[in-house]
Amino acid sequence: MNGGPMKELAFLYRGSTLYVWNLVEKRLVHEILVPAFEGEGASVGQVGFVGGSKIACVLSNQGTMIFVDVVEARFVGQLKGRRFKSFAISPDGRLLSAIMDDKKYTISLVRLDAVWERVGGQVAEEAMSDEEAAEEEEVREDVLEEERKRVEVSMPEGKVMTFYELVETKEQSPALNRRKLRQFLNHYGTYPDEWRTYIWRYLLHLPENRESYESLLAQGIHPSFKDFRKKYPLKSERVGKSMEKVLSTLAYWSPIFEGLDTLPSLVFPFVGVFRGDLFSGVEVVMSVLMNWCQKWWEYYPNPPFEVLDVVEDLLGYWDGEVLEHFVGCGVTSQVYAWLPLRTLFSEMFSRKDWLMVWDHLVSAPVGFLYSFLVAVLVENRVGLLGVRASSDFEYFFTHPPSTKSVASYLHRAYEIHRGTPASIKPEGVIATFTPLPKGQYPIFKGYPEFVVGYRKR
């Protein structure tokens, strides 16, 4: 593997020996024997660079983790006291997340920058090679324990608790909280796939109203969606059935969602995330509809003018030239804002990019949704200023160019969210996040009832 700015270096490993190559000169630089990995059956299991440095983290198949300077071929340090199963290092090299051999369902976080600071003056100086093995330098167990953070909770007897409450019962500051999750997200850019459902459930404070959910589910497939799988044929029959159930549950929850054309596109990616836990998936969608989709159907079947005005004000402040171009081409906020918003960007991005976007949206204030949309427009200003036909605009807002990364959109979105004057912030129109109440789902009535009643007739 290549290491950060040292792109001429690559690792090849076999047994307990690391082979370091110079890719530019195409020659072997070092053969580093790892003393800690010697012994019957021991070998290198995983290697990763610490950020863009010359330090490599090396894990054996028996759980030993050491750090090696690959340029000078010398031992740097070792994390002792636990046996590691696998690890990942943040791009900036400050955090190491690991799964322990004895706790396979716990993610441990180690602050590598703090470890280097506390033991940096005590690292081993001896070089390691075929002929010469260096003495290992140990990072003390108390240092490791101090820097490692875990989620370990217990349930008080006699009380049924939600996942959010269960995590919050941990004394002092729980490892799984918004601040620490934000730190993780800032380092890695996205949450791990295997933990995303737990993190979203926690951040959204899901009430886990099992009885209310089952009463909605028991009503069966809603008449509005009885032909769903014929209209939207999916490769997976399981996903098709899940979509029918979720859409029907929402339709029984509130009449506005009966036959809403854009609802399947909005719901589909969430069903994909929670395909193994439909109960949580329904509550996540409900929470999103109640919070991120505020005021969307107050003028139904017309677009949400109040929300679109927020987007127009933001765009006018951050890039008036683009807004003037839209006006000159006869393109309104119903095109450049409502088209991507109404499906919550599911038609704009690939699954991977969409997940990254929503990792940030559920971790940020609700109004960040509109800062992100404006960021997409501002980041694509060059391409947009070159478009004039209305059909091309519509295509653009459902198929954005791949020349820009989601990371660049997010970076600009945070700048916009922080720098927008209070007078035009989305929070002036959009309420702050409110979790679904525990016990029973709220009545969703953010729509003109006479219009929906007429549609049903």
From TrEMBL:
<keyword id="KW-0853">WD repeat</keyword>
<dbReference type="InterPro" id="IPR000195">
    <property type="entry name" value="Rab-GAP-TBC_dom"/>
</dbReference>
<dbReference type="InterPro" id="IPR051570">
    <property type="entry name" value="TBC1_cilium_biogenesis"/>
</dbReference>
<keyword id="KW-0812">Transmembrane</keyword>
<protein>
    <submittedName>
        <fullName>TBC1 domain member 31</fullName>
    </submittedName>
</protein>
<keyword id="KW-0677">Repeat</keyword>
<keyword id="KW-1133">Transmembrane helix</keyword>
<keyword id="KW-0963">Cytoplasm</keyword>
<dbReference type="InterPro" id="IPR035969">
    <property type="entry name" value="Rab-GAP_TBC_sf"/>
</dbReference>
<feature type="transmembrane region" description="Helical">
    <location>
        <begin position="354"/>
        <end position="378"/>
    </location>
</feature>
<keyword id="KW-0472">Membrane</keyword>
<keyword id="KW-0966">Cell projection</keyword>
<feature type="domain" description="Rab-GAP TBC">
    <location>
        <begin position="190"/>
        <end position="365"/>
    </location>
</feature>
<dbReference type="GO" id="GO:0060271">
    <property type="term" value="P:cilium assembly"/>
</dbReference>
<keyword id="KW-0206">Cytoskeleton</keyword>
<dbReference type="GO" id="GO:0036064">
    <property type="term" value="C:ciliary basal body"/>
</dbReference>
<keyword id="KW-0175">Coiled coil</keyword>
